[in-house]
Amino acid sequence: MRKLLFALPALVLLASCGGSSNTAATTTEQTAAEQTGQTFMIDTLTTTVDWKGAHKGGLAPRWGKIGVNLGTISVQNDSISGGEFMVNMASLSVDPASVTEEGKKATDLEGHLKSADFFDVAKAPTAKFVITKVEPYTATAEASLIADPNYLISGNLTLKDKTLNVTFPAKVQVTSDVVTASAKFVIDRSAWGINYKTEGSAENWMISKDVEIGLNLNAKKN
Questions:
Q1: d(CA 32, CA 200)
Q2: Largest CB tally within 10 Å, which of 68, 93, 169, 195?
Q3: φ and ψ at 143, to 5 degrees?
Q4: Is 124 exposed, middle or buried (0-12, 13-18, 19+ CB in 10 A)?
Q5: Cβ-based neighbour number of residue 121 at 10 Å
Q6: DSSP β-ladder status, 178-188 and 48-53
Q7: Are strands 162-174 and 126-136 parallel, antiparallel or unpaired?
Q8: Cβ atoms within 10 A of the Cβ of 198, count?
Q9: What is the pLDDT of residues 120-144, one digit of tens each?
Q10: What's the predicted TM-score (pTM) here?
Q11: What range does the record give for the signal peptide (predicted)?
Q12: What value, to the nearest 5°, has the Cα angle with vertex 152 and ends 151 and 156?
């Protein structure tokens, strides 16, 4: 399995702050990048997928993490050539520090996010990201939410039963034994058909359609 699956499961959870100019470019599903070079295995203990969402206008922000099951990254000529990475949606968690209102519990929100209103974990226990293109980041590329990005990564993101291609800046470092990558970007969850509380006109939305995704990836030489 030599593709890099960026599991961004926490994606279509709630939402980030409504309507961000940093929303990742999204297109239809693309052909996966050919896997060449050496294989690095994702370290599931140190790799994290973070999510952040909010209600309309950025109110009541919520955030948490999702665990990574497995994945690989391919490297050729000191650069990522492709790969894939899987995430266990059942491991989705809500940070209790983000739920401060009286009478509300992080565990209740976790259950709701795993329900059919959002990720429907019973039917779709995993999410995945398959790299389709890796190119150098330039000053004319998309705006970045992280400092000093050096790559622009595109990949097929599958959430529930829908796959779309997303593109975002990333900071990648490759050594002879380790690959590290970090990225932060925003997606519109409704593009994947996750429409809970976002139907109709914008003034009726209770939860923003935007979700901020953070990726901190570590992989070791196989």
A1: 35
A2: 68
A3: -60, 145
A4: middle
A5: 21
A6: unpaired
A7: unpaired
A8: 20
A9: 999 999 999 999 999 999 987 778 9
A10: 0.86
A11: 1-25
A12: 130
Q: Are 81 and 33 within 8 A, CB to CB?
A: yes
Buried b (16+ CB within 10 A) or exposed e, 144-161: bbeeebebbbbbbbbbbe
DSSP assignments along the chain, one per residue? --S-----TTTTSS-SSSS-TTBPEEES--PPPPP-SEEEEE-TTT-EEEEEE-BGGG-S-EEEEEEEEEEEEEEETTEEEEEEEEEEEEEEEE-GGG--STT--HHHHHHHHTSTTTT-TTT--EEEEEEEEEEE--TTS---SSSS--EEEEEEEEETTEEEEEEEEEEEEE-SSEEEEEEEEEEEGGGGT--TT--SSGGG-SB-SEEEEEEEEEEEE-
Question: How crowded is residue 112: how many other Cβ atoms within 10 Å of its Cβ?
Answer: 15
Amino acid at the residue 199: E
CB 118 within 8 A of CB 78: no
- Tokens describing residue 93: 């968690």
User: Percent of the chain at pLDDT above 90?
Assistant: 72
Q: What domains appear along the chain, each with residue ranges and CATH number?
A: 25-221 (2.40.128.110)
Report the alpha-carbon distance of residue 192 to residue 161 in Å, rounded.
8
Structure tokens at 131: 């790299």
